[in-house]
Design brief:
Length: about 230
């Protein structure tokens, strides 16, 4: 008998990692930030100057790198990340990585390797995974599936807050909106395991709610379902 699995999917900047991390703390579950894994591969690929369209080299790279994750420090860095022993917690959140990660993640060979790792870590249950394809593809039998959304406006504003908290320059809101839209489009339109709401996922919109409100809502959904 395995313990429950919670899948949280949704577009960029909807608050998945903040909520998944806090929900995991409350339930004593392991949190697996799958976006951090795709970011880690992207960071390494950029270092090696691999073309983001070169699926073959990217797949070989994904099989070769060793990615380690550990709980992070705050919402801005929800997960600590190491690639082949080097800590890249901050680097994987850089804009340069964010701009390329969807292209790198579109390759089936990259995804199948990371999905295999995610299944290995998660199969015993007692885990929360967040990402784009958890409920549809990685763990389609997850006990609780959440599809977390927020308007593009709200997500851009939160992104600006994040940058401010990190002491980084804040681009125009219109630029942030465009970046969010573009990443969503790429993640939703790829051929293999695109972002979409699983039929049995519960959609939770976070637009007008605080993190605490949404956390309470997710805890209630968990208690109802499991
Ligand atoms: O969640 P985060 O924004 O860090 O994810 C970064 C990117 O990694 C996503 O935009 C997507 O391209 C990719 N990703 C994915 N499948 C997942 C998690 C992330 O394709 N399960």
């Amino acid at each position: 008998e395995r313990r429950p699995i919670i899948a949280i999917d949704g577009p960029a900047g909807a608050g998945k990692s903040t909520l998944a991390r806090r929900l995991a703390q409350r339930l004593g579950f392991l949190y697996i930030d799958t976006g951090a894994m795709y970011r880690a591969v992207t960071w390494r690929a950029m270092q090696e100057r691999i073309d983001p369209l070169d699926g073959e080299r990217l797949s070989a790279l994904t099989r070769a790198v060793r990615i380690r994750l550990a709980p992070g420090y705050q919402s801005a860095f929800p997960t600590r990340v190491w690639v082949d022993g080097e800590e890249v917690t901050r680097a994987v959140r850089d804009e340069a990585v964010s701009l390329q990660v969807s292209a790198v993640s579109s390759h089936p060979g990259v995804r199948s390797e990371l999905v295999a790792q995610q299944r290995r870590i998660g199969e015993a249950g007692g885990v929360i995974l967040d990402g784009r394809d958890i409920g549809t593809h990685v763990f389609p039998r997850a006990e609780l599936k959440i599809y977390l959304t927020a308007s593009v406006e709200e997500r851009a504003l939160r992104r600006a807050e994040d940058l401010k908290a990190k002491g980084l320059p804040i681009p125009d809101i219109a630029v942030l909106k465009e970046q969010i839209r573009s990443r969503d489009n790429q993640d939703m339109s790829r051929a293999y395991a695109p972002l979409r709401k699983a039929d049995d996922a519960i959609e939770v919109n976070t637009d007008t709610f605080t993190v605490q409100d949404t956390l309470d809502r997710l805890l209630a959904l968990y208690r109802d379902k499991v």
